[in-house]
C-alpha cells in the first residue's frame, strides 16, 4: 500500500484479507460472510489497539507522511476568496511560504503557512517546505498589513526548519526569524497558529508566536528533529526513536507542558486519510479561537500573548513530568 507506515502493517494486511474474501465471495457461489464479519470485528479491535496507543516515533512518521494535507489544501477547504500575495519587497518570492487575504465565514483574515510539495518536482520548487529569509519577510509583510487593516491572522506551521544553506545565511536567515518573533509579539490583532505537520526549530517558531497555538493530534513541534537530537546526545542518528520519546515533541506531551492550547483530533491513521474531516475539525477550532479573541481589545491581545509565553514552564508539576529533580 502506497504511503504505508511500519506500525500500520498489521491493519493493512487484515484489510487486504477482508477485501480479498469479499471479492472471492462476489465472483463465486461460496459464502464467506461469517468469516468476513469475524475479521471485521478483529480489524476494529486491532485499529483501536494500534491507533489509541500510538508512540511518539509513530506520530513523527505520520507528521512526515508524503500525502499529509498541506497549507494550500486546508486553505481550499476552509476559506473563500483567497488571494495569494507574493514577494517580500526586498529580495524576491519564496514558495516555501504561502500567504494572502481570504474570508473565514465572511470575516476578512490573513492566512500564512509553510508549503511543502506534493511530488519531487514541486518539493524542489518549494524547497521541501524549508523557507529562505525572503519567505519570513514575506510573512512579516503580510502580518503588518493585517495589523494595519485589523484583520486576524491565521498561521499554518509545517516545516522541518528554516533552510540552513549558505545563500540563506548570507541574506540574513537568523535576523529574519528573530524579527518575526519580535514583531509577532506586538501585533494588535488576533493571531491563531496551527501546527499541521512538522514544527521544526526556529523555522516553525517564526510563524508560531500567537494568542492561541493549536496542534493536530499527530503533528510534532520541537527545537530539533529526533535524528538531529540523537546525533548530538548519543552520536547516533539511528537512536531517533528514543530521542522522540525523550524530547516530548508530540501534541499530548506539549499540551501537558502548557506549550499548546488545544489538540485537534485526527481521523484514525492520520489527516491524510480524510482531508474533509480534518479541515472541518480545524474549522471548529478556528471558529472558537476567533470568537474568543475578537472580543479582546488591542491592548488585551498583546498582554494575553505576553502572559501566554511567560507562563510556559511555570507549571509546578513540569519538572516532575520531564524527569528533572
UniProtKB/TrEMBL annotation:
Residue spans crossing the bilayer: none
Gene transcribed to yield this protein: accA
Organism: Mesobacillus persicus
GO cellular component assignments: acetyl-CoA carboxylase complex
The name this protein goes by in its record: Acetyl-coenzyme A carboxylase carboxyl transferase subunit alpha
Gene Ontology process terms (BP): fatty acid biosynthetic process; malonyl-CoA biosynthetic process
Localization terms from the record: Cytoplasm
The protein's assembly and partners: Acetyl-CoA carboxylase is a heterohexamer composed of biotin carboxyl carrier protein (AccB), biotin carboxylase (AccC) and two subunits each of ACCase subunit alpha (AccA) and ACCase subunit beta (AccD).
UniProt keyword terms in alphabetical order: ATP-binding, Cytoplasm, Fatty acid biosynthesis, Fatty acid metabolism, Lipid biosynthesis, Lipid metabolism, Nucleotide-binding, Transferase
GO molecular function, one term: carboxyl- or carbamoyltransferase activity
Pfam families per record: ACCA (PF03255)
Pathway given in the UniProt record: Lipid metabolism; malonyl-CoA biosynthesis; malonyl-CoA from acetyl-CoA: step 1/1
Signal in keyword set: no
Amino acid at each position: 500500500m502506497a504511503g504505508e507506515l511500519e506500525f500500520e502493517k498489521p491493519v493493512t494486511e487484515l484489510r487486504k484479507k477482508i477485501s480479498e474474501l469479499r471479492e472471492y465471495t462476489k465472483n463465486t457461489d461460496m459464502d464467506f460472510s461469517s468469516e468476513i464479519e469475524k475479521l471485521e470485528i478483529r480489524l476494529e479491535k486491532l485499529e483501536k489497539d494500534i491507533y489509541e496507543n500510538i508512540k511518539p516515533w509513530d506520530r513523527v512518521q505520520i507528521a512526515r507522511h508524503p500525502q499529509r494535507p498541506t497549507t494550500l489544501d486546508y486553505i481550499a477547504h476552509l476559506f473563500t476568496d483567497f488571494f495569494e500575495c507574493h514577494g517580500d519587497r526586498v529580495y524576491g518570492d519564496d514558495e516555501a511560504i504561502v500567504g494572502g487575504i481570504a474570508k473565514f465565514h465572511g470575516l476578512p483574515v490573513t492566512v500564512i503557512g509553510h508549503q511543502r510539495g506534493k511530488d519531487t518536482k514541486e518539493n524542489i520548487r518549494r524547497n521541501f517546505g524549508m523557507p529562505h529569509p525572503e519567505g519570513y519577510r514575506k510573512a512579516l509583510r503580510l502580518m503588518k498589513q493585517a495589523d494595519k487593516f485589523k484583520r486576524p491572522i491565521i498561521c499554518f506551521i509545517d516545516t522541518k526548519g528554516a533552510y540552513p544553506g549558505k545563500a540563506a545565511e548570507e541574506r540574513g536567515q537568523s535576523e529574519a526569524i528573530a524579527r518575526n518573533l519580535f514583531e509577532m509579539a506586538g501585533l494588535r490583532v488576533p493571531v491563531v497558529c496551527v501546527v499541521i505537520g512538522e514544527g521544526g526549530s526556529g523555522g516553525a517558531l517564526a510563524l508560531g508566536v500567537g494568542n492561541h497555538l493549536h496542534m493536530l493530534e499527530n503533528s510534532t513541534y520541537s527545537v530539533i528533529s529526533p535524528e538531529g537530537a540523537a546525533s548530538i546526545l548519543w552520536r547516533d542518528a539511528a537512536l531517533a526513536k528514543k530521542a522522540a520519546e525523550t524530547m516530548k515533541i508530540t501534541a499530548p506531551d506539549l499540551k501537558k507542558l502548557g506549550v499548546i492550547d488545544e489538540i485537534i483530533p485526527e481521523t484514525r491513521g492520520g489527516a491524510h486519510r480524510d482531508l474533509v474531516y480534518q479541515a472541518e475539525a480545524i474549522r471548529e477550532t478556528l471558529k472558537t479561537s476567533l470568537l474568543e479573541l475578537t472580543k479582546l481589545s488591542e491592548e488585551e491581545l498583546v498582554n494575553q500573548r505576553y502572559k501566554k509565553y511567560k507562563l510556559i514552564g511555570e507549571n509546578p508539576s513540569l519538572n516532575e513530568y520531564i524527569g528533572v529533580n
